[in-house]
Inverse folding.
């Protein structure tokens, strides 16, 4: 993969993990961070050029860029990257404003550049295997999904609440799993002392009476990332962290073994491959826009105290 050169904008928070994995893949070429001390530190650590402004950074020889900055900056930075003709991965949430996301998608099409969004759980081996098992009819027709994500509030996230930061992963997975768009959203959230919501209980209604229940919070001390897929003939349970899967059937419990792989490595390898082959990535800019629309509908549902019917 050494013939592809990737740069990262935003190296704090989740961005430091991008640096680590891209370095392991031997494609890390440059970094950009407003924090000059952090930029210098990472430049020394990884042996790559460091910048503190995007315009100078984009003069570097790069094939692709990852934007891992606060959500409110995504549109402005991503616009510059796309305009420069580089392939782009924007961390979730794609944008806070739906219209801005749509403008980025349109701009990427005009410039004929690759645009993808950081929905890392699409690349989680446990999720991929679970979907494969359902497709093979292991538990019969799926009826509903139930996601649970819990952990303390990540202090570095200041401009979005738990819905746009955390719940949005499972919004995207629900769309991907059912292969359809939800037609209804109902949500109940709570701030519990923060400016933005720390707790969310959300229901997505899909065609054919399918549903997805998504529970997220930034309060409980333990980190939980779990999913139950309930079907007519059984239940598949999975842990996103350990990548363990359990299949509860009427007469037995099966525990398949799958190879553990880091989802971020798989996600970034896919991004690099998409650049090398000039192919559309698994996750598109449109996926980012649709997930944001659903998340914003959920926040509206909470404000109004009623279900929101949507058309994507």
């Amino acid at each position: 993969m050494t013939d592809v050169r990737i740069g990262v904008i935003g190296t704090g928070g989740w961005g430091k993990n991008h640096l680590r994995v891209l370095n392991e893949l031997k494609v890390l070429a440059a970094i950009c961070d407003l924090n000059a001390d952090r930029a210098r530190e990472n430049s020394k650590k990884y042996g790559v050029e460091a910048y503190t402004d995007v315009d100078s950074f984009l003069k570097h020889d790069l094939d692709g860029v990852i934007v891992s900055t606060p959500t409110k900056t995504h549109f402005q930075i991503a616009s510059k990257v796309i305009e420069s003709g580089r392939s782009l991965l924007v961390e979730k949430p794609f944008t806070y404003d739906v219209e801005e996301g749509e403008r980025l998608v349109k701009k990427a099409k005009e410039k004929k550049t690759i645009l993808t969004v950081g929905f890392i759980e699409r690349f989680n081996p446990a999720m991929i295997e679970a979907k494969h098992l359902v497709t093979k009819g292991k538990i019969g027709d799926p009826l509903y999904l139930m996601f649970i994500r819990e952990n303390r509030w990540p202090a570095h996230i200041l401009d979005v609440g738990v819905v746009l930061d955390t719940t949005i992963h499972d919004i995207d997975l629900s769309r991907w799993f059912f292969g359809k768009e939800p037609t209804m959203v109902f949500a109940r959230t709570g701030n519990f002392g923060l400016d933005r919501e720390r707790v969310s209980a959300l229901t997505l209604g899909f065609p054919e009476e399918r549903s997805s229940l998504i529970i997220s919070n930034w309060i409980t001390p333990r980190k939980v990332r779990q999913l139950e897929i309930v079907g007519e003939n059984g239940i598949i349970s999975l842990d996103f962290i350990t990548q363990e899967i359990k299949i509860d059937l009427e007469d037995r419990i099966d525990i398949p073994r799958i190879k553990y792989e880091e989802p971020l490595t798989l996600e970034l390898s896919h991004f690099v491959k998409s650049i090398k082959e000039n192919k559309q990535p698994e996750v598109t800019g449109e996926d980012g826009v649709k997930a944001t629309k659903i998340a914003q509908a959920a926040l509206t549902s909470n404000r109004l105290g009623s279900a929101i019917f949507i058309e994507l």
